[in-house]
Amino acid sequence: MSDDTSQAILDATRNSILDLGVRRTTLTEVARRADVSRMTVYRHYPDVDAILRDLMTREFGTLMQAKAADTEAGDGTARERLTALAVGSVQALRAHPLLRKVVAAEPELIAPYLFDQIGGSQRHARELLVAAVTLGQADGSIRAGDPLVMAQALLLVTQSFLFSAASARDVPEADLDDELGRLLNCYLA
């Protein structure tokens, strides 16, 4: 499949999910929206869930990469930049229309990545965090420790602020974001 065709299928899936929801998005609808044959889609994806996995990896990976680039160029220590990256990513992901749609309508699609396995987006996030921890250890702003273990701990904490914050509706999100920043800053110091 050409990159253009791949992107067209992912874009069509995104638009269909935002318009119709995950369960009402079919491979036939995706093919129609992507202006490709159903067989083109079927040759590369067995079902909508498989496309959705690739779509989430693309969407959330792109978002996190952009946040990483923004914070990399920022001022402050590597620890301050990593904290800004984590909090900014949580804020951006919380507002992302695809994630909001999936979490609101089909939370069971996210559950395996919270309880059983690590997905592509999580692997990408962890790689960014390993690199940021390594930079912080090099500049002395982040304590010693295994960067992979620390990155995984950071990922678990930030995921809880992303997916569980809605359960604390009586606490403003901005206040929770501030607390996440403090929590991460203290953990890394």
Characteristics:
189 residues, elongated
The named CATH superfamily of the largest domain: Tetracycline Repressor, domain 2
What fold name stands as the CATH topology of the largest domain?
Tetracycline Repressor, domain 2
The tally of structural domains comes to: 2
Shape summary = elongated
Could you tell me the mean pLDDT? 92
Distance between the ends = 47 Å
**Coarse structural class:** mainly alpha
Tally of individual helices: 10
Estimate percent helicity.
Answer: over 70%
- CATH architecture annotation of the largest domain: Orthogonal Bundle
Q: Uncertain spans, ≥5 residues at pLDDT below 50?
A: none
Order of helices and strands: HHHHHHHHHH
The CATH class name of the largest domain reads Mainly Alpha
Main sheet: strands, sense, barrel: none
From the alpha-carbon coordinates, what is the Rg to the nearest angstrom?
18 Å
Could you tell me the strand content as a percent range?
A: under 5%
Question: How many β strands by DSSP?
Answer: 0
General description of the model:
The chain is built from 10 helices and no strands. The protein is mostly helical and 189 residues long. α2 (27-34) crosses α3. The protein is elongated. The model has no long low-confidence stretch (mean pLDDT 92).
